[in-house]
Design brief:
about 300 residues; ABC transporter involved in vitamin B12 uptake, BtuC; two-stranded antiparallel sheet; globular; transmembrane; BCAA_transport_permease; amino-acid transport; L-phenylalanine transmembrane transporter activity; transport
Length: about 300
């Protein structure tokens, strides 16, 4: 067995899985709070990528140094995506909160299609080049045989963001309000939790994470177009279901498992079946463990 090739595939899977996990967190947080699959989340990711592209172009023309371009373009993507996430929740989901569950689902699909076509008309249907925003650093040359500097930064950034999110959810006042709302929304309202603000904060945080993932993966892939949100969003949703929809640690684990499955499958079998491996794994999990790897089955009282 070629251990060097195995290590390369493993690291590639971790890189891909880290990005899936970041985006999957947005799905799982929203579902955990209001039990809604936000199908427009992939388009929020796509808008973050285009925002970073535009901001990076303006800053490059203005002569800003590399690291400042990365930071400012990422900040612009996060702020713009967060504002879109907040607006989508306010317009498409909040008015339907008391409606039958099919209504917000249809609204989510409609918002996804609307945002896709909005960016298509505002930009172009063609792929657009996305420059690598991560400067090459000399101290990363020692591991360049396994990972590029960009991939190291992707793994490090994803790990830091997920750790900070976990600490935020566990210790902050807003995080505790989120956990209370997820456990019992009506009881949370009775003890003084502003549920509307909690739900809005959830959409803002999830959209911000999607924007971070957009900057990371666009820098690594080198091109974007209006349709990237659909593909990545579908994979991230698969990761969320795989880990246990509604479970934050499950979204992280599901993303890594999905990324490694795709990497090893394409490496040892064929890259033509990348999506087949991902969704075959999803089907198997749904058959043998419907709640996901870390999800908990609901107990129905009769």
């Amino acid at each position: 067995m070629d251990w060097g090739y195995f290590k390369e595939l493993l690291m590639g899977g971790v890189v891909k899985g880290s990005i899936y996990a970041l985006i999957a967190l947005g799905y799982t947080m929203v579902y955990g709070i209001i039990e809604l699959i936000n199908f427009a989340h992939g388009e929020i990711y796509m808008i973050g990528a285009f925002t970073a592209l535009i901001a990076a172009g303006v800053l490059t023309v203005a002569g800003f140094p590399a690291w400042s371009i990365l930071i400012l373009a990422s900040a612009a993507a996060v702020v713009w995506s967060a504002s879109y996430g907040y607006t989508v929740e306010k317009i498409a989901y909040r008015p339907l909160r008391g409606a039958p569950r099919l209504s917000p689902l249809i609204s989510a699909l409609g918002m996804s299609i609307f945002l896709q076509n909005y960016v298509l008309l505002a930009q172009t249907s063609n792929f657009m080049p996305f420059k690598n925003l991560f400067p090459e650093e000399g101290f990363l040359e020692n591991i360049s045989e396994v990972l590029s500097a960009t991939e190291v930064i992707i793994i490090f950034t994803s790990a830091v963001v997920m750790i900070l999110l976990s600490l935020f959810i566990k210790y902050s006042t807003t995080g505790k309000a989120m956990r209370a709302t997820a456990q019992d929304r009506n009881m949370a309202m009775l003890v003084g939790v502003n549920v509307d603000k909690v739900i809005s904060a959830t959409f803002i945080i999830g959209s911000s994470l999607a924007a971070v993932g957009a900057v990371l993966i666009a820098s690594n892939m080198g091109q974007i177009n209006f349709f990237i949100g659909f593909i990545v969003g579908l994979k991230a949703f698969t990761a969320a279901v795989l880990g246990g929809i509604g479970s934050i640690p499950g979204a992280m684990l599901g993303g890594l498992v999905l990324g490694c499955t795709e990497s090893f499958g394409t490496g040892y079998v064929s890259s033509d079946y990348e999506d087949v491996f991902a969704f075959t794994l999803l089907v198997l999990i749904l058959i043998f463990r419907p709640a996901g790897l870390l999800g908990k089955s609901d107990i129905q009282k009769v």
